[in-house]
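Table S5 (text form). Sequence records supplied for joint modeling of the two-component complex.
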Amino acid sequence: MTTPTKPDTAHKPGRPIDLLQTQPSLFFANLQPILLLGTLLLSFRSLVADPVDTLLVLAPTIAIVQTLYCVICLPSTGDTVAPVTKPGQKKKTPRTQRQDIWAKVIVRYSHIQGQVRDRSSKLSKCQPVFLSLTLTALLSTPLLYTLLILFGAPLTTHHPHTLFLALHLALLTTPHLFYVHGLDATAWLRIASLQVPVDEVYGMSLGACVGAWLGAIPIPLDWDREWQKWPVTVVVGMYGGAVVGKFVGGGG
Amino acid sequence: MARLQRLVSLAAANGLLLIAIVVFAQGFFPVKKLLPGLAGLEEDGEGYGGGGEEEGEMGTGMGTEMGTGMGMRMGSGMGMGFGRPKAVFDRVIFVVVDALRSDFVYGFESGFGFTQSLIRAGTALPFTAHASPPTVTMPRIKALTTGSVPSFADLLFNLDESGGGSSSLATQDTWLAQIRARGGKLVFYGDDTWLRLFPAEAGFFARAEGTSSFFVSDFTEVDHNVTRHLPRELASSDWEGMILHFLGLDHIGHKTGPQGVNMLPKQREMDDIVKMIYEAMETETHLEDTLLVLAGDHGMNAGGNHGGSGPGETEPALVFASPKFGAMGKEGRGVYESPTTPREGTEFEYYRKVQQSDLVPSLAGLMGLPIPKNSLGVFVRELGGVWEGRGSGTAMLWGNAVQMLRIVEVTYGVQGFRALVESAKACLGVGGEASEIDGGCGEPAGDEEALTRYWARASSAVSGLDADGSADWATVDGYILDFLVAAQETLSNAASSYDIPRMVVGILLSASALTLAIISLPTLWPPSTAGVFFATASLLYGAMMFASSYVEEEQHFWYWLTPAWVLILTVRSVSRAEGSKRTKVRIVAAGAIILAVHRVAVRWNQTGQKHAGAPDIVHGFFPDYHMTMWVLVLWTYGRNCYTLARRTFLDILPIEAAVAAAVALTVPAIVFKLNFTQADAPELVQGLAVLIRRWTEPFSLILQAQVTFGLLALATVTTVVLAVGLAHGTSIGGKDGPAVNVTLAERLHYLLTLFLVTQSRTPNIPLFLGLELQLLALSVLLDACSASTEKRTSHRNASISSNELATTVLLCSHVYFFCMGGSNSISSVDLSNAYNGIADYNVAAVGLLLFTSNWTGPIWWCSAAVSLTFSKRVKAGEGAKPATNGKREWIDDERERLRRDAEAKPVSAIKDPATQDHWMVYVSSMTAFVAASLLAVMVACTALRTHLFIWTVFSPKYLYAMAWCVGWHIMVNAGLGSLLRWLGEMA
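The corresponding structure-token record, covering 1239 residues in total, follows.
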């Protein structure tokens, strides 16, 4: 049995991701937390008043911020890939192809990008970033939704609340991870089992998760405040956590 | 540190914990000083003034109120005495309706139409009587009869209701005892709690019949058994006091909540009883001087439960009714609208709010009885209007004040108090005219001085009455009331009687227990992930004890922490597992299963205060889908029966006998549970299994439970004897022998499970399926944590991390305590399974059953933890292997097993420290947690002893902390767990 050629991820799993060392990159990397927290702060009042609509309206904004962050600041999965796969080879090993099919999609994109990179580097980035966002919406959101439920989100009520909460959590945690790590199963197993160095990208994701978890603390208190309702504190917690995690990861 | 040293340290820590609990409790729960003996009439007011020539007996009439009553004589004491006004009533009918919340009588949706018409007519005086927590029946009866404020210490003796204990009221001064003392007869029908407080064998009641409140599903019989005596008793005239205690309304509350469909008809039924009595009072001549009192002993919350101090629980109704009140001037009692709305800003405060204990002096005053010595009640001033002339009411209040003064003097010391009174009189001005108590004397320093000022002012005002005949009654009344209310408040507030040094000693003891427990841990540095998590959880938990809302909603803490820990555990297992992808998938699946079961379990029973009564599976789903519930329940029993046959009796009984034994154990348990549920919660049985129920009808529930428990005991003894006998003299027995198919600890685990299932409420039984599933998944997680499959040896000890085990079990124990319906409120204590198989009251047995029925989950997890410390030998023999590559894998497994068995002997000789002493590390960790939590609760109770919620939130929490420490930690973890562990090592 021939070993399928593993797609090289952009970075060896043991090494932290470095930001692109360009002026706009450094600028936007610092602007991103301001944008995230600023958006949340500005819409906090309406978030308390009407969480579902606010989260829905905010989602595209956050998605754009995250997209720009990916495109401007981060090295894409395929950026340093020298694709060694020959197109014909894949068809010969259909059985093994199945397990890494998603990863290969990325590689395939990278392959194409490799050819077009000279022409327009920015444009070529749009494809992986589009893919990252699609995966965030279609894969991470349902997964995180399930996880939120398992962690105690209301099971029979507040479905839209939890769904949009999951969407926002997904937006804060996964687009950049998809963007830099692709869909390599090994890489994601390492991500899931905390065996990736806490860099800026991973720190942000981890911080968002921990922040969301900590955000649940004030809910049972008997202060009888409007903002104690589901899911306001969790939203605040995860935005705060994401920013803290980003700085801890980036600084460390 | 050497093992022996650690063991000594651990034992010392647990010993210190026990001492700390007792010492702190003695300081925290003050035992009130009770004045012994019965009060005499001459003591009330008369004796104080030193007069004493007043006729002592009521009924002979003291002239008219003014004549002798107000004939002032200078006493030898410091104040004035004037006689008690004559009795207005010679009989009382005291109707207690359990859980009669104020709005049930006074509100717009009330069924008490007749009572409301009496209120409108002015012949009934309505009040809301504040019931101080604990709002359960026994302490409330105590308050309604003695007038004292029962402390939380009474709750500790609540179990000991059998009489001999301090809870018996037979020897205390009550208005019942006072009626008996003057030769009156008492009759009683209703809740048998009264008969435990006033033992029938002492002949306290001339006629009595108790009804049991055991099965709350009984809405009608309990009340019918009271009502059927009523016409006969109303016709007879030999009694002076008739007490009726109706339980039906409380049962309806517990079952269906205050909005239940049966609530309104029950209220109408109670109203009809009021009507029957009142009409008899109007028509029968021997009842013309009869007072009717309608009272609730406590209220209920939105969920229909009570015990704490939630909205509605502390606000029962209190109505005095008699045609005589109609003759009172309107200025005396005021005009009452009915139905009406509660006072603004409150939910249940209708009319004026009085204390429950106020009933006692009021009743005594109206009936011409001496006020019971330990009463902290204040005469209800509206009732003063029943006497003609203003002075009588004042005289009554004065008598009340003198009685109260005795308690004040005993509390603060007679000499010191009198001296303070003298100085207060001096500075308040000679004429006693000062209207402000700080006028001329400066701010009073402390409660005692404030009381002396009030007393000085009141007594000066009363002695001033001597001088001018036309007194300003209202002012004097006001002064006396000021003293009475201040004294009531001060004396009811236990803050003055904390024994702070003892509490501090308790705190220091538990702090040293914590230190010793930490010392007894083998390794502290470098900390493991589990260790860090465990320590953080302990710290957070400790901090949480200072926030009343988190104490009330403690379940959220455990529900919140557990998924995070399971996630960490899963992630660590995945990263440590060296095996194939399949192993990793297995681990992730195991983690997901634990999380999923957890998620369902936390919705099983809604608990806590904030959302009490919110829909959950047990109360929202099962009543509608009782078939589903029974399928799950039978599945649980079936699965347990299977494990009994296949695991418990494996190798010690032939398979046919094992199956027979398992069925013989399970069937009586199911039948008992079915019949018990029919009695306790018929809505969950409905038409099911009529045949079985009919066949077993001749056998009482007690007998059925005894059969179940007896068979379980027999099976336990047999299993232990056979298993130990088989293992004796072989390489199996002995410390750290080779792994076996099934250890004795695991055999006993399934027997214990059956016992715990029997002790659970029926809707909770399916949770045991989830528990078994979680245990299975957990063994995958923990196992993979420390060693991959290749490294697994044939040790009896599982190669798991003790810290991870302790953390997991700690979290799960608490989660299951709460999701089975537990909380930190007294009202959530489930008594329904505390009397299984017990015919006559036995404190030890009831205590044990009560604990096992409320701590079912934690006890189960302790046994599960023991079985996790033993390694599973092989799975091939189980037949549970999937048949995929069956044959070849099976051969491989066999080879592997042979190889391991061959290795076993040399390996077992070498002691691997990593796999040693799981149980000791576990107990040490738990001791550390329990000591830390106890320390936090004690410090919180001490620091917040003047907090508003001290008696409603923090004291119950301390009681629960005691139960967790003594019951769960010392008895179950250190006792039962160590025993199981030891047995598991033997066989």
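Note: Chain B has a mean pLDDT of 82.
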